[in-house]
Task: inverse folding
């Protein structure tokens, strides 16, 4: 371990370290974040849900998007797997189907950051995060 | 650090460790590896989550899944179902005692909803043995801020302005205490952390030390800078091996990072830390006794003045604060005095940690804003009385405190209101009692403790508490008179008025407050020879209801003193003279034929 | 168990512990703590030796030993049992647990069984109030106890 | 000094800043009772644990009552020492103490002398509220040759503990146990004889109850006096005459030498002798030893051990046998005056009377409890018959006189018997700190220089300071002298010698405050050090009134050497008047 030789050292160190705590910090106040739930049931995993989730998490971390990704069970849209539910604070949740890693990034860039709707939304009138 | 997508936080507090939480950590790690998710999910041991009733706890973030009473055997299912497939293991989720619903997310548990976690901010959140996690959560930033931006006096002013008061019992303003110590000139001063927690039923200090040891070290260094001390000593109960070991680990990490020692962070400030062990004497929670003990003597309190701030450890100015008080300090420095003083009541700022225990559904450690009512604590956070029984009283302040009743349920809890109600904050034990608890016996229990723990130095405490206890025993044994109750009152007042230290001055509180609030119950004992709660053995009368007795003789066989006689298949009788009121017959009877009065 | 005779090896470890604490009487409690950890208890001769090394009176050492409940002058059982007597445990029936243990072991609180296997003590809150009532056997915590469970727990120590 | 104003019981008084309420009240005629607080100003002894809580008073604006012994006055403070709240509290606390105290005052040896009893009377305690059969804290009783410990009567004032540790640095006693069963005791609650106790008895001198009392030997004396077979002779130590009167209501400092002698005769002692005679003898031996060592030392003999330490005080002997085992060859080998007297009596005087030593009973009246221990040491007995049979204290003598219906105050003065009753002023001052060394200097000076002293009073050696140092000019040779009283001061002096910080030729040490006048067998001072000061002055008055004031001029001493001993330090003298020391290991 290296000595912390100055107050700036500590600040720098904190910057480097806070990254690892991110998901815990985010879990502390999920209601103020964009909550993204990736369906991770067997069918989802089989259709590549894990890759989708990884892609989203990487993007969120890279661009410091105020969003938190959790995994969920089967949402009942097995025909459209992988599915991703996105809840932007103050808005109704939206479910996207047939999400590939590429689409996942697009969801973040367009829908989450800019509020643009993109293709692939599954119409729902029930079941949302934390209901 | 690797980029994990999920963290599994396993409680490593004393309570949960007693239920094999270490084994759970191991199993979870094995299972994660087995399903190949070791790069996605990380298992961590944290400090206490506070929800000890249902331990061991495993919390999964970021989705805040809160698994309770997890056994090592459950780990496989958690990993395979939840971590791999995203399906929460429903049977392990917390079940709301009223709605019987499984709650998926800790954010929705009533237990946590009214809590504000300042002192416990890192407990159950970070790995206490990893300084990096502490630093990542702004750890040592408060120290850096103080060293870099404030003079000692400015630091003291912030603490003064925040309104923080000592959390160990008396509620003395912390900033003022620091200021007094800072003004006494000496070649050496000391900062002491009082971690000799001893109230039976209070364990917040231990939880903080186990769950967030660095916050205490940081706060002590801040205090050291403020008052001009370069040495810190943590006086900790030897019976807290886990807390001791976590503190030792934390100390080593700090030294390696240069956060303890010479020239901390290049600011020229030196601070060293040492541990001293308390060896089992409650009175050592009193600061002058604590100092005697640290010096290697019997832990007897000394007369004040001189106060420790003038002449403390080794005759040098010494500032003593308790663990919870210190735990608030870094947060106050970082977020400001105004933030802190915006929480709480007019004269009691911030939050208080309570150890909620007794006849309540959610036993555990809670941190709530000052000014919350007992009703909110007991019925919302605590989930109500166990077994649907009737609430009777809540004891706060441990052996120094008193009992609060139904009529106090809506009183906002703060230092002054508790004192006005005949109790005190104490270190924050909160023991809930129901209709089955005899208040005379409760007073006796506390006095037994005080008699055991009295140091013996001053006469009122040494002899007086003994006499209080003897009187209570007499009343519980059905031999008391109304004069005895009056004697208890006078003696209690005199002990409060004359005892040497805080222990003695508050020791009669459990008696006086129960006499005040439950006078009828005392009267029932002394005039009717009856214990309304049915707890006092000597006042119980066991009889057999002839109509219900089938003459099965199960009670005859259970009775250790052969007090029950009767023909087989005929109603039996209990000889009250011989009966020792052990209750064995009551437990054995399948026909509810034993009547207890 | 015969009277304790202090051995060469004991003297050595006492001396080492004292040296570690620089023979400072201010560290008396830590020294006694370490010595007790090493020997299990603090018999007379051990206290005399500590006093001799630290150049303080035996009376002072004994005054300290007899003040703190953590120190003991009698050896504990092979499996020391401590029942928590914190309030949470008390209201949830710790007394019954003690009674049961006394009954099972046929010893009083503070006693050691004849075969030296178990000793029984009460202690202040261990802080596992969620598991009340609680007892410790050695360092192992047993929670949510009921008198009926005691026998099996004791039987598991062979 | 800064003055502040306080109101005590409606009276406005001015006191110096830093004054305690207790003192402020006392200085203004209000005597607040206390059981634990003890302050002997002249001797720098203070015990202030704040434990008895009897001295509590009400201070306006304060939540609880304040212990007056340890609360300082502040400007404008309003104090009430006897309102209902205070009196109720004080009475209740006293009742509590009494509820854990045996009620055997009628037969307690401290009866009439007991602070607890007096306070109970003062507060008019007529009943003790407590449950019937309230538990009492009881302990094993401990009888040593010098003192008795009956700790059932202990009220935890901690005075004995303070004296034993802070003042005497013996460390035989400590508070032990906790709570209701806490008590002051030796390690492991063992007997005092198995502890490093020196039997100085200062714990007894300050005990406010009957917990620590002298071992009572009076019945043995009565039996010996009644035995027609026995010749019973008595010796009286110098300090006794300066204090005995106090037991009969006389002012402290009243000298009662003549009355004491008369009373002893009335009691039936066959001869009334004076330990002062033996003190003169001690000076002959010890002085000669000092001169011998000094002469050799000054002539460059490196094998000589200096300083010479006096050895009259038995508690001091016990102390160095326990704590300074590496220095056992430093103290003078001369026996104490009590033992020299015993030895001369049982040998020389028994021969004169032509009786067997077994038929001669030697009794000593001592201000001291350690003397009871000393006379039982094996080396001071021949074939099991001790040189001094019994040693009783000043207080025991007073009680003997009272029980014999002797009206002490109206007795005519009488004189000691000869030959062992003749003494000089040098013998008298053995009773105070600095006296032994002054007596030795008076003789040594004349023997060393061969000149007569022009000024007999060595005032530079006198005083009540705990440690004193002086240089005496022996005709050009500077003799450095150290004096200490109270064993803690002795320890400081000795440690200084051991470390090479001090260089003395001779040192006098006495265990008790002020020397023997403050001995534990003396009438109790009840915390008033003025009494000790008065005795101190009385001893020097007695010295000044003597015609012969140098030991070597005592005609009976000269005669004793001529007829019996030969020269000081002769073989016979060595055999009868010197001793050797043992290593003890009680700590």
Result:
């Amino acid at each position: 371990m290296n000595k912390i030789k100055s107050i700036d050292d500590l600040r720098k160190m904190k910057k480097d370290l806070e990254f690892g705590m991110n998901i815990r910090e985010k879990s502390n106040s999920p209601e103020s974040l964009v909550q993204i739930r990736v369906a991770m049931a067997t069918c989802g995993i089989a259709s590549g849900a894990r890759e989708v989730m990884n892609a989203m998490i990487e993007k969120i971390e890279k661009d410091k998007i105020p969003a938190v990704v959790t995994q969920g069970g089967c949402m009942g849209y097995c025909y459209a797997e992988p599915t991703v539910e996105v809840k932007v604070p103050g808005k109704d949740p939206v479910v996207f189907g047939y999400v590939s890693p590429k689409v996942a990034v697009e969801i973040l860039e367009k829908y989450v950051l800019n509020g643009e709707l993109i293709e692939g939304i599954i119409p729902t009138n029930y079941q949302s995060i934390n209901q | 650090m690797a980029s994990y997508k999920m963290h599994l936080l396993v409680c490593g507090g004393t309570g949960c460790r007693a239920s094999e939480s270490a084994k759970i950590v191991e199993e979870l790690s094995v299972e994660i590896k087995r399903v190949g998710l070791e790069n996605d999910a990380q298992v961590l041991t944290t400090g206490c989550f506070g929800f000890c009733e249902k331990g061991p706890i495993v919390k999964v973030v970021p989705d805040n899944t809160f698994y309770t009473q997890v056994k090592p055997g459950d780990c496989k299912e958690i990993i395979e179902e939840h971590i791999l497939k995203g399906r929460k293991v429903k049977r392990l989720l917390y079940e709301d005692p009223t709605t019987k619903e499984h709650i998926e997310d800790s954010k929705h548990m009533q237990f946590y909803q009214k809590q504000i976690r300042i002192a416990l901010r890192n407990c159950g959140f970070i790995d206490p043995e990893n300084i990096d996690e502490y630093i990542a959560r702004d750890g040592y930033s408060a120290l850096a801020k103080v060293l870099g931006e404030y003079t000692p006096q400015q630091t003291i002013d912030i603490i003064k302005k925040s309104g923080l008061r000592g959390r160990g019992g008396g509620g003395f303003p912390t900033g003022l205490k620091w200021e007094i110590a800072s003004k006494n000139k000496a070649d050496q001063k000391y900062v002491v952390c009082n971690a000799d927690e001893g109230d039976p039923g209070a364990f917040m200090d231990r939880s903080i030390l186990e769950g967030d040891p660095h916050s205490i070290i940081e706060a002590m260094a801040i205090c050291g800078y403020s008052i001009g001390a370069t040495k810190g000593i943590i006086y900790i109960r030897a019976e807290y091996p886990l807390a001791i070991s976590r503190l030792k680990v934390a100390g080593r990490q700090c030294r390696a990072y240069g956060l303890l020692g010479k020239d901390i962070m290049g600011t020229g400030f030196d601070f060293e830390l040492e541990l001293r062990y308390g060896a089992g004497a409650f009175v050592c929670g009193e600061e002058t006794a604590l100092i005697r003990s640290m010096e290697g003597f019997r832990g007897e309190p000394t007369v004040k003045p001189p106060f420790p701030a003038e002449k403390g450890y080794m005759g040098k100015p010494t500032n003593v604060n308790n663990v919870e008080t210190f735990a608030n300090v870094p947060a106050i420095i970082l977020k400001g005095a105004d933030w802190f003083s915006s929480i709480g009541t007019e004269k009691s700022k911030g939050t208080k940690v309570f150890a909620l225990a007794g006849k309540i559904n959610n036993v555990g450690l809670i941190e709530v804003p000052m000014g919350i009512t007992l009703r909110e604590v007991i019925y919302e956070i605590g989930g109500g009385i166990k077994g649907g029984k009737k609430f009777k009283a809540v004891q706060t302040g441990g052996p120094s405190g008193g009992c609060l009743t139904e009529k106090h349920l809506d009183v906002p809890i703060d230092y002054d209101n508790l004192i006005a109600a005949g109790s005190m904050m104490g270190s924050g034990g909160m023991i809930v009692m129901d209709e089955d608890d005899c208040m005379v016996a409760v007073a006796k229990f506390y006095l037994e403790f005080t008699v055991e723990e009295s140091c013996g130095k001053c006469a009122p405490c040494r002899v007086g508490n003994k006499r209080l206890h003897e009187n209570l025993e007499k009343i519980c044994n059905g031999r008391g008179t109304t004069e005895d109750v009056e004697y208890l009152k006078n003696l209690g007042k005199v002990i409060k008025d004359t005892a040497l230290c805080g222990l003695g001055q508050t020791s009669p509180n459990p008696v006086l407050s129960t006499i005040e609030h439950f006078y009828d119950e005392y009267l029932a004992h002394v005039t009717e020879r009856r214990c309304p709660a049915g707890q006092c053995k000597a006042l119980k009368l066991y009889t057999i209801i002839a109509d219900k007795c089938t003459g099965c003789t199960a009670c005859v066989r259970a009775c250790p003193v052969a007090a029950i006689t009767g023909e087989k298949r005929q109603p039996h009788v209990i000889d009250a003279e011989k009966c020792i009121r052990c209750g064995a017959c009551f437990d054995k009877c399948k026909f509810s034929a034993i009547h207890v009065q | 168990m015969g009277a304790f005779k202090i051995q060469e090896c004991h003297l050595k470890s006492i001396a080492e512990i004292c040296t570690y604490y620089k023979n400072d009487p201010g560290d008396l409690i830590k020294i006694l703590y370490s010595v007790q950890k090493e020997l299990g208890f603090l018999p007379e001769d051990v206290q005399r030796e500590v006093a001799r090394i630290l150049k303080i009176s035996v009376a002072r050492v004994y005054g300290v030993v007899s003040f703190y409940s953590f120190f003991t002058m009698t050896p504990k059982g092979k499996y020391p049992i401590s029942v928590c007597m914190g309030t949470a445990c008390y209201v949830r029936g710790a007394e019954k647990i003690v009674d049961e243990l006394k009954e099972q072991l046929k010893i009083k609180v503070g006693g050691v069984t004849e075969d030296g296997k178990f000793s029984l003590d009460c202690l202040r809150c261990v802080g596992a109030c969620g598991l009340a009532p609680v007892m410790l056997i050695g360092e192992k915590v047993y929670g949510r106890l009921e008198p009926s469970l005691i026998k099996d727990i004791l039987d598991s120590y062979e | 000094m800064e003055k502040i104003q306080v109101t005590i019981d409606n009276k406005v008084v001015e006191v110096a800043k830093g004054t305690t309420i207790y003192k402020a009240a006392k200085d203004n005629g209000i005597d607040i009772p206390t059981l634990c607080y003890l302050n002997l100003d002249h001797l720098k002894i203070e015990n202030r644990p704040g434990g008895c809580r009897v001295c509590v008073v009400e201070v306006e604006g304060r939540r609880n009552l304040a212990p007056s012994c340890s609360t300082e006055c502040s400007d404008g403070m309003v104090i009430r020492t006897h309102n209902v709240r205070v009196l109720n509290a004080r009475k209740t606390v006293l009742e509590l103490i009494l509820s854990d105290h045996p009620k055997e005052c009628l037969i307690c040896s401290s009866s009439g002398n007991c602070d607890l009893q007096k306070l109970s009377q003062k507060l008019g305690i007529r009943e003790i509220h407590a449950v019937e059969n309230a538990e009492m804290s009881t302990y094993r009783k401990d009888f040593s040759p010098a003192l008795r410990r009956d700790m059932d009567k202990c009220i935890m004032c901690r005075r004995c503990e303070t004296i034993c540790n802070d003042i005497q640095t013996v460390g035989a006693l400590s508070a032990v146990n906790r709570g209701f069963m806490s008590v002051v005791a030796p390690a492991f609650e063992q007997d005092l004889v198995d502890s490093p106790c020196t039997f100085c008895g200062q714990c007894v001198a300050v005990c406010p109850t009957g917990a620590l009392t002298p071992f009572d030997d009076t019945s043995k004396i009565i039996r010996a006096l009644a035995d027609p077979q026995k010749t019973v002779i008595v010796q009286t130590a110098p300090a006794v005459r300066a204090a005995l009167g106090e037991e009969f209501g006389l002012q402290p400092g009243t000298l009662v030498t003549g009355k004491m002698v008369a009373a002893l005769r009335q009691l039936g002692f066959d001869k009334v002798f004076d330990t002062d005679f033996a003190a003169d003898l001690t000076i002959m031996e010890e002085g000669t030893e000092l001169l011998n060592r000094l002469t050799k030392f000054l002539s460059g003999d490196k094998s000589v051990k200096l300083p010479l330490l006096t050895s009259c005080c038995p508690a001091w002997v016990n102390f160095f046998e326990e704590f300074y085992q590496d220095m056992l060859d430093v103290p003078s080998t001369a026996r104490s005056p009590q033992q020299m007297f015993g030895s001369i009596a049982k040998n020389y005087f028994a021969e004169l009377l032509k009786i067997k030593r077994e038929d001669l009973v030697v009794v000593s009246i001592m201000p001291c409890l350690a003397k009871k221990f000393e006379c039982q040491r094996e080396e001071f007995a021949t074939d099991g018959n001790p040189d001094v049979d019994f040693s009783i204290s000043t207080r025991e003598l007073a009680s003997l006189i009272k029980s014999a219906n002797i009206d002490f105050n109206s007795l005519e003065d009488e004189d000691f018997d000869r030959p062992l009753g003749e003494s000089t002023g040098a013998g008298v001052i053995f009773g105070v700190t600095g006296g032994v060394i002054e007596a030795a200097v008076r003789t040594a000076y004349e023997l060393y220089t061969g000149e007569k002293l022009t000024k007999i009073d060595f005032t530079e050696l006198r005083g009540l300071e705990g440690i004193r140092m002086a240089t005496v000019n022996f005709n050009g040779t500077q003799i450095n002298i150290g004096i200490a009283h109270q064993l803690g001061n002795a320890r400081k002096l000795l440690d200084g010698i051991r470390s090479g910080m001090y260089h003395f030729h001779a040192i006098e040490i006495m265990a008790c405050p002020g020397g023997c006048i403050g001995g534990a067998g003396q009438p109790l001072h009840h915390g008033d050090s003025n009494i000790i000061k008065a005795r101190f002055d009385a001893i020097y008055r007695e010295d000044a009134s003597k015609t012969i004031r140098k030991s070597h001029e005592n005609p009976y001493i000269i005669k004793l050497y001529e007829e019996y001993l030969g020269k000081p330090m002769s073989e016979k003298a060595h055999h009868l008047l010197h001793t050797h020391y043992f290593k003890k290991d009680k700590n």
The CA atoms of residues 89 and 103 of chain C lie 19 Å apart. The interface with chain B takes residues 24-30, 32-33, 60, 63-64, 67-71, 85-88, 90-92, 123-132, 134, 139-143 of chain C (CB under 8 Å).
